[in-house]
Amino acid sequence: MILVTTEYITGKELEMLGMVKGSTIQSRNLGKDITQGLKSLVGGELKSYAEMMNEARALATKRMVEEAGALHADGIVAIRFASSSVMQGAAEVIAYGTAVKFR
Q1: 76 with 5: CB under 8 angstroms?
Q2: What sign results for the dihedral spanned by CA atoms 45, 48, 53, 59?
Q3: How many domains does the chain have?
Q4: How far apart are CA 64 and CA 96, in angstroms?
Q5: How far is the CA of 37 from the CAs of 52, 53, 66, 87, in angstroms?
Q6: How far apart are CA 18 and CA 97, in angstroms?
Q7: What domain of life (predicted)?
C-alpha cells in the first residue's frame, strides 16, 4: 500500500474510496515521567516521550492502513497526523487520509 502526504500519486489515476483513520491514546509511565520531569529542568530532548510519540504515530498509521485494507484500497493520499492531550498524562494521536484505488 502506498502512503503519501500529497493529494496525488504520480503516474496513477485515483478513485477515491473515502476517509480512513487510525488512533491511539498513550499514557506516560510514572517512573519515566519522574525522570523526564527532572530532565526538563536542565533542558534537552525528552527521549522517552519522543519514543512514546513515535510508537503512537506508528500504531495510529497501522490502524489507518488496516481500515484502508478493509476497503481494498491501493493507497492512502493526503495523510495527516494530529495529537491532543485527553487528560493529565495521556495523549491521543490520530492519523487520517483518503483511501484510494488505482484505475
Answers
A1: no
A2: positive
A3: 1
A4: 7
A5: 15, 16, 36, 17
A6: 8
A7: Bacteria
- CATH number for 59: 3.30.110.70
Kindly report, residue by residue over 26-41, the tens digit of the pLDDT. 886 555 555 555 545 5
Cα–Cα distance, 94 to 53 (Å, whole number): 11
CA distance readout (Å), 72 to 1, 18, 56, 81: 10, 11, 24, 22
Q: Which domain holds residue 89?
A: 2-102
Cell, residue 41: 529542568
Please give the pLDDT value at position 32. Answer: 54
CA 27 – CA 86 distance, rounded (Å): 10
